[in-house]
């Protein structure tokens, strides 16, 4: 019917099935955010006023905007929460023009020193996300591109924003998977032991997308990828606040500008 294919679905207008974006809608430098509200915030608060940011996709809560930041074309795309949704969005973003990715997300730190509201930059990730095992064996490492990590660190230093660099544990489950008790106060012993081991071995943070992004990008064309997260929670002190999103976005946007200058995309 109409030439559409079940093994490569698109809309009847030829747009990407989930993002509803088309070829050329996304800039080659692309931020990935979990929440559509964060995509709106980046576009409204940080993109240049002229030319105005354009909403290029809005379907299933996956909002996408394209604009400029300090004259550099940049897009921000919503992935939704977790590995399954992220694994859907990444190929559609590439088909729409994106080539470099920085996740701007939120996390909890496993270590005592980082404070709520500061930023955490992931240089690699423990693969507890599940999705990546569809692409390569679990032994394949989830690593951020070293040039993106360097740009994120340089950006944070230039902006004088407090930040921490380390390994993320990317989980497929926000609650028990990150050793939060259920409503009966129960944590499966194997997951509590995993949490304690990750903490003792110096893992910096929990989040739900970076390993998926790192593995997909490195195995599906060698796309450069990195990740910076606002620290919402500290699992040692049990502090929690929804704060730091703007600073994480500032770091990511400045890093994209540095990459644009240092390593232009042909």
Automatic annotation (TrEMBL):
Listed Gene3D superfamilies: Nucleoside phosphorylase domain
Positions of the Nucleoside phosphorylase domain: 29-231
Chain ranges passing through the membrane: none
GO BP term, pick one: nucleoside metabolic process
InterPro entries linked to this entry: Nucleoside_phosphorylase_d, Nucleoside_phosphorylase_sf
GO MF term list: catalytic activity
Database matches in PANTHER family: URIDINE PHOSPHORYLASE
Protein name: Uridine phosphorylase
Organism the protein comes from: Candidatus Magasanikbacteria bacterium GW2011_GWA2_56_11
């Amino acid at each position: 019917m109409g030439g559409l294919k079940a093994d490569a679905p698109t809309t009847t207008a030829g747009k990407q099935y989930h993002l509803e974006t088309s070829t050329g809608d996304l800039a080659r430098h692309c931020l990935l955010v979990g929440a559509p509200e964060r995509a709106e915030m980046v576009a409204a608060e940080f993109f240049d006023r002229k030319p105005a940011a354009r909403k290029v996709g809005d379907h299933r809560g996956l909002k996408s905007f394209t604009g400029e930041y300090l004259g550099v074309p940049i897009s921000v795309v919503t992935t939704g929460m977790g590995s399954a949704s992220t694994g859907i969005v990444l190929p559609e973003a590439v088909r729409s023009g994106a080539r470099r990715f920085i996740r701007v997300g939120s996390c909890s730190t496993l270590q005592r020193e980082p404070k709520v509201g500061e930023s955490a930059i992931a240089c690699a990730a423990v693969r507890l996300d599940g999705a990546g095992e569809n692409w390569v064996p679990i032994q394949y490492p989830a690593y951020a591109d070293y040039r993106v990590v360097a740009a994120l660190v340089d950006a944070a230093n230039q902006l004088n924003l407090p930040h921490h660099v380390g390994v993320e544990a990317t989980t497929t489950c926000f609650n028990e998977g990150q050793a939060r008790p259920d409503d009966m106060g129960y944590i499966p012993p194997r997951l509590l032991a995993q949490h304690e081991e990750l903490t003792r071995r110096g893992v910096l943070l929990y989040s739900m997308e970076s390993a998926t992004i790192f593995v997909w990008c490195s195995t599906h064309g060698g796309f450069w990828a990195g990740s910076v997260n606002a620290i919402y929670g500290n699992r040692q002190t049990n502090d929690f606040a929804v704060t730091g999103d703007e600073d994480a976005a500032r770091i990511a946007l400045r890093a994209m500008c540095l990459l644009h200058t240092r390593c232009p995309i042909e």
